[in-house]
Amino acid sequence: MRNQVVALFAATSMLAAGVMAGEMPLSKPASPQTIAANRAVLDQLPFADRADYDAARRGLVAAFAGEIKNAAGKVVWNTHSYDFLAQDKVPDSINPSLWRLAQLNANAGLFQVMEHIYQVRGLDLANMTIVEGDDGLLIIDPLMATETARTALELYYQHRPRKPVVAVIYSHSHVDHFGGVRGVVEEADVRAGKVRIFAPAGFMEHAISENVMAGTAMFRRGQYQGGSALKRGERGQVDSGIGKGAPVGGTISLIAPTDLIDKPIETHEIAGLQVEFQLTPGTEAPAEMNLYLPQLRALGMAENATQVMHNVLTPRGAEVRDAKGWARYLDDSLVRYGDKAEVLFAQHNWPTWGEENIRTLLADQRDMYAYIHNQTLHLLNQGLTPLEIAAAVPKLPGELDRKWHTRGYYGTLSFNVRAVYQRYLGFYDGNPANLDPLPPEEAGKRLVEALGGADKVLELIRAAMARGDYRWAAQLGNQLVFAEPQNQAAREVQADALEQLGYRSEAATWRNMYLLGAQELREGAMDNVPRATEDLVRAATPAMFFDLLAVRLDAEKAQGHDMTLNWRFDDLKQDFALTLRNGVLTYRESSLHAQPDASVSISKATLDRISLRQTDFATAIQQGEVKLEGKAGQFKALLGMLGSFTPNFNIVTP
Description:
Elements: H1 2-10, H2 32-41, H3 51-57, E1 60-63, E2 67-69, E3 75-78, H4 96-105, E4 109-114, E5 117-121, E6 128-132, E7 137-140, H5 146-157, E8 165-169, H6 187-191, E9 196-200, H7 203-209, H8 215-226, E10 259-261, E11 265-270, E12 273-279, E13 289-293, E14 298-300, H9 323-337, E15 343-345, E16 352-353, H10 355-380, H11 386-392, H12 413-425, H13 440-450, H14 454-466, H15 470-483, H16 488-504, H17 508-523, H18 534-539, H19 542-552, H20 555-558, E17 563-569, E18 574-581, E19 584-589, E20 598-602, H21 604-611, H22 617-622, E21 627-630, H23 632-640
Helix pairs in contact: 1-8, 2-16, 8-17, 9-10, 10-12, 11-12, 13-15, 14-15, 14-16, 15-16, 16-17
């Protein structure tokens, strides 16, 4: 359970410990073709428009430059790792459009959004918004780690009155928007009613369970999305699209909400301020909400309208989001608040000021997601497959393609149209040849043989590289690497191809994925040891534990070992009837078998300690914390059938 629960936050923990600015030891310079492609971007987009540079610096109260450390003295955040972004000249190895965004996101410190509203930006992946009420502070999204959240609040207090925090709002169920909560409030104050915590309906369910079942895979893929092991520098990680990155080794926390917003529009008075919540489920997160502060004429758009194109399907993996619904909620916001709001702030990037600019941003973002949805459906109904649709939709229509706030820095048009296809039709493209294709290793071996052997394929790859045809070089290289994973020449040329594709990428996420792939081909994958987060483990329900137990079960080992088990959680007064049959583990909640093979009595607190590896079942049984009746051998046999997952599996090699 530990690896899966930790993946709730680890998939977004994208920085590697000890990573500093500089070049990867084995990285290579941009090729002439890549340099030419990047320079061409300068003529394609309105770089003379510097309005966002002013907006990203507007209202700066105090800059932050330095390190944030955890209790053990380990650096979890270091703004100096991005000092290289201060230079004026765009490096040859970075797409100029991405360089522009990376500079904008590098503004770190305390900013005044308007009177009574402040943001701390650049100290974590997300922003922390602080609203000054009559009798205290309202904090919107207390970052990912307690260390960065505490530093952010102290930075605010250095320049503003030290009012108490009386309310926290979790805008949605992603960890970078709630994980630092214990850095700004004490749970005792929440329990005493001194602090209220607001969240959208379904928050706890999705905050805990969204990534549990596929958590290990999401953690590993998340490393690619954020460039986990890449050094910060001209040939490495420069940004994450919606922020610089995530804190490393910080403490993730969670305090359960006291107030859940479950109506489409719901108003509460908080610290003397009217707060109107707009529930937007199924948009950027399964549980998400915008908010409007009528007394301040300020609109908070959570992560539904940032300064970039977002993901309809994040590369780390998640359920496909509803682009149609997303567009509809944005239009609802435009209609409801477009003539009322004087400032729009989000929990990533920088705010937008002025009614006309706000209406334009909301309308453009609405049109962007609506186009992605509608054009994909238009083309799939003509029989086009996902890759064909991606090729047929190279850019957004009209002026949307030249708007900075619709550029694909985080999500990409190519990925998003394929995500919409997947939402409606699944991964199968309809071609029977793709019903049961060979796995990568087998396909690679056959293709290499058909092309004349490894030396011939290397010759074809190098020819493609020489003419700058890196996409084709990478496709060929992937086949050769999977056919002959120990072929060092193949690994090196594939790394070179991925590297050049990374240097060209406008999307921070794609750059990170290409460059980390290149690095792992050259140096191998780093060891990953995710840490469990106690708050998240304790918040997981027993049913979630049994769901994960069923996933961990090795079906082959379980064959012929049918059994029934009763579990009773004495402290929760909850019963579960487990059945192992045909190598499949199922359970019924609030039920018990009449004649079980074994019965287990345990407290949720003890199960949490076992999940956190602070003890184990054998020790807990010996110490009387777990009571086992019936056939103890059956219970022990079940434990022996459970597999464990480690986030070290290969991605760019077999």
